[in-house]
Specification:
138 residues; mainly alpha; 6 helices; elongated
């Protein structure tokens, strides 16, 4: 492996993870969790545990349970973007018309920048795309 090999559980947030080995890739990942392995010996050592996690994941899927997802309103809105929405009713209307996924994409992208100047530049760069009803990757 270069760094690690991962086994992804799409509804991993619903697993008990009693061994505390599941990894949330980033703080913004809501449902998925990973089991990470750095070498083949690690997989062999944890074979019984891996099987138990897979069996639990199958049971979760068969139960029909779903991970409660955060709404877009629960994500951080950088003050630079909030100010832009206040300055431009058209931008606010266009942003609210975007799908929740597109809204989250923009909010996460804007919030990732550490400096206010960078956040402001990102808001300016993507304003036209938002007005056109496009997502970050459209």
């Amino acid at each position: 492996f270069k760094e690690y090999c991962a086994l992804l559980f799409h509804k991993g947030a619903l697993l008990k993870d009693e061994a505390g080995i599941l990894v949330q890739q980033t703080r913004n990942v809501q449902a998925a969790r990973q089991l990470r392995f750095t070498d083949l010996a690690m997989i062999k050592r944890q074979q019984h545990l891996i099987k138990a996690y897979i069996e639990e994941a199958i049971a979760v899927e068969r139960s029909g349970r779903s991970v409660p997802m955060r709404s877009t309103g629960e994500f951080e809105m950088p003050e630079e973007f909030s100010a832009a929405l206040k300055r431009s009713p058209a931008l606010k209307k266009a942003f609210q018309a975007l799908t929740p996924g597109r809204q989250r994409g923009y909010l996460l992208h804007f919030a990732q920048a550490k400096q206010a100047r960078t956040r402001e530049a990102r808001v300016q760069k993507h304003t036209e795309r938002i007005l056109q009803g496009k997502g970050l990757d459209d």
